[in-house]
UniProtKB/TrEMBL annotation:
Pfam families: Peptidase_S8
Family of this protein: Belongs to the peptidase S8 family.
Protein name, as recorded: Peptidase S8/S53 domain-containing protein
SUPFAM superfamilies referenced in this protein's UniProt entry, alphabetically: Subtilisin-like
Residue ranges of domain Peptidase S8/S53 in the record: 166-315
Length: 338
């Protein structure tokens, strides 16, 4: 049982919403549900007489896949309209459901948390950062600030900490990996939103997250973040490998399940490549995380990755608001000290 999985009960749970998001319900349907399942594989469907199996019979079905299968099977009997259901994490499933079906999910003893899979977009403050120019300064004050706990000296000295043999997963709007500032260190990753016909990203789940040169319609926030983290000219870890992971679509919008999916893919890729102890997931997205988002962050942390989330760049008192990321599993950072 996962340490992040709280004790589930048959009492009603509150449906969590992202306060900064939009489009959580549409025409009597929850636009999407993200369900954290607390049960071992094989236990979810037995009491209902439903035991969904993997079609290929080559691996163990995860609790999330099993729960999604149970809902689909029950829906066929009740004709209540459960839509697409799929695994995000082994313990998290995403699905669409009518509002009159929601209470059944909230009361389910196998479910610890339920979030609305809302749609959100980058804020004007976040977008403004991508248009700011630092070309007039030899060393931007941000780099000068982080290499010393004392005063500014107009220099950036990273010493031996240049990001050698490190990997940064940029979970954002996509990255223009061909940009000269990356010096060939940026590679294709994964996309939650692009389809095969979208030439700004790759095929879904294969080589997505890449923005092609000259595509002016695409948001450059992800490329900006990647350059800040590991660009040759103004980056911090100038020798690190950058992996483009598209959590938000090309135009700066996306869903909660897309963000969770980006965390999952980054974690699984790092483990597959044997680099989970030298990998970082960048979540430069100002948003209060829900219980399941936090569980995903904890899962990545427990696997050995460092998760860095934006502390909030809107010039408000972060201490007076809900934290963007759970401590100590995620490290919060931002360009302001106000």
């Amino acid at each position: 049982m996962l340490s992040t999985c709280a004790t589930a009960t048959e009492s009603a749970k509150a449906l969590e919403y992202n306060a900064s998001a939009t489009r959580c319900t549409e025409q009597g349907y929850v636009a999407g549900l993200i369900v954290q399942v607390c049960a071992r594989a094989g236990q979810v469907g037995r009491s209902l007489g439903v035991e969904p199996r993997d079609s290929a019979q080559t691996r163990t079905v995860t609790p999330a896949e099993e729960y999604a299968g149970v809902l689909r099977a029950r829906d066929r009997r009740k004709l209540t309209g459960v839509g697409n259901a799929y695994r995000i994490f082994n313990f998290v499933a995403a699905l669409t459901a009518p509002l009159d079906h929601l209470n059944e999910v909230l009361m389910d003893s196998r479910v610890a948390h339920v979030q609305a899979d809302c749609y959100a977009v980058l804020t004007p403050v976040e977008l403004a950062a991508t248009s700011a120019s630092t070309s007039s300064a030899a060393v931007p004050w941000g780099l000068d600030r982080i290499d010393s706990r004392t005063g500014l000296d107009g220099r950036f000295d990273a010493g031996e900490q240049r990001g050698w043999n490190s990997t940064i997963y940029i979970a954002d709007t996509g990255v223009r990996i061909s940009h000269r500032d990356f010096g060939g260190r940026a590679v294709r990753g994964w996309s939650a939103y692009c389809n095969d016909e979208d030439d700004t990203c790759g095929a879904v789940g294969v080589d997505g997250g890449v923005i092609t040169a000259g595509h002016s319609g695409c948001n450059s926030h992800g490329t900006h973040v990647a350059s800040t983290a590991a660009g040759t000219q103004f980056g911090v870890a100038k020798a690190a490998t950058i992996v483009a992971v598209q959590a938000l679509n090309c135009y700066g919008g996306g869903t909660t399940s897309g963000i969770i999916g980006a965390i999952r893919w980054s974690m699984e890729d790092a483990i597959t490549m044997g680099r989970e102890r030298t990998s970082v997931i960048s979540l430069s997205l100002t948003s209060n995380l829900g219980s399941i988002d936090k569980a995903a962050v904890v899962e990545a942390h427990n696997a050995g990755l460092v998760v860095v989330a934006a502390a909030g760049n809107a010039a408000y008192d972060q201490c007076a608001s809900l934290p963007t990321c759970p401590q100590p599993c995620a490290r919060c950072d931002g360009p302001k000290t106000d």
